[in-house]
Amino acid sequence: MQCEVCGRRIYGEGYRRIIEGAKLIVCSECAKLGVSDWSEDKPTSVKKTPVKPKPRRVRARRPSIGEELELIENFGEVVRKARLKAGLSYEDLGRKIGEKVSVLRRVEKESITPDEVLARKLEHALHIKLLVKSVYEEKIKLPPVRPTELTLGDVVRLKVREEES
Predict the structure, then answer these.
(1) How many other CB atoms sit within 10 Å of the CB of residue 51?
(2) In the chain, where are the structural domains located?
């Protein structure tokens, strides 16, 4: 066996000393550096299992409304009127479609626009139409606008016209 401090060979049993907080087996010379003896602790049969943190639940982003569909105007007012007509409170409607009350309130106030999934849930529960096929107007192609600055070609044309007149 070797001294864990100086590396000398230890004959017989070494000295168990605590040197600067470390439990070491040392020779007689290095034993003078230690503070006190220590005994080997027997391992206990109780094993501590590490506590794993619960994984954070990440809410998946919902897809937005596709290009072929769009929300009707005043969708919040339509949802509110249909909810009241059906005699449902925010809590009842939320339970029915699996959404939070705060989300339903914000949809009715139009502070958020519902995605396609939520709009479909509201349509089904309230028997209303929120999503309609979008009608895109084709853009009219205009001829390119002439620059306001004079180019070399413009100057030549101007001189040619002056000479002709």
Answers:
(1) 6
(2) 1-38, 69-133
